[in-house]
Amino acid sequence: MRNLDDIQPQNPDQGFQFPGVFEVTAVGRADANLPQRIPEIIQGIGLSVMAGSLRTRPSREGHYVSVSVTFTCPDRATHERVHELLRAEEAIRWIL
């Protein structure tokens, strides 16, 4: 596995560069155990969630939670697959 510091964009003026390190934030029901479920989904397709990258933030009234994780991704198709799987989760309302 390559060192993350060695991953450099091929063209810094373009959008996403692969392979790369990406962050995803999902917002969903607070009672759905999303802080555990989101990393499981990402790891379930063979990607690595960076240790210590999980962040959570509850909504003001506590009905929702925002969960952010950082992961490494080899290509655009896999990145799109992560978003597809997260959108398929019934408890998740929004993905950033």
Characteristics of this structure?
alpha+beta, four-stranded antiparallel beta sheet, elongated
List the helices and strands and how they pair.
Elements (H helix, E strand, L loop, with lengths): L19 E10 L4 H11 L10 E4 L5 E10 L2 H13 L3 E4 L1
Antiparallel strand pairs: 1-3, 1-4, 2-3
Calculate the mean pLDDT score and round it. Answer: 91
Coarse shape: elongated
One letter per element, helices H and strands E, the order comes to: EHEEHE
Strand order of the largest sheet: 2-3-1-4
CA-to-CA gap between the ends?
27 Å
Range of strand content:
25-35%
The largest pleated sheet is described as: 4 strands, antiparallel
Taking all Cα atoms into account, the compactness measure Rg is 14 Å
Q: Name the poorly predicted regions.
A: none
Structural class: alpha+beta
Number of strands: 4
Q: Total number of helical segments? A: 2
Helix content: 25-40%
What does this structure look like?
A hairpin with a 5-residue loop joins strand 2 (55-58) and strand 3. The protein is elongated and about 45 Å long. With 96 residues, the protein is α+β, with helices and mostly antiparallel strands. 25% of the residues lie in helices and 29% in strands. The protein has a four-stranded antiparallel β-sheet with strand order 2-3-1-4, with helices on one face.
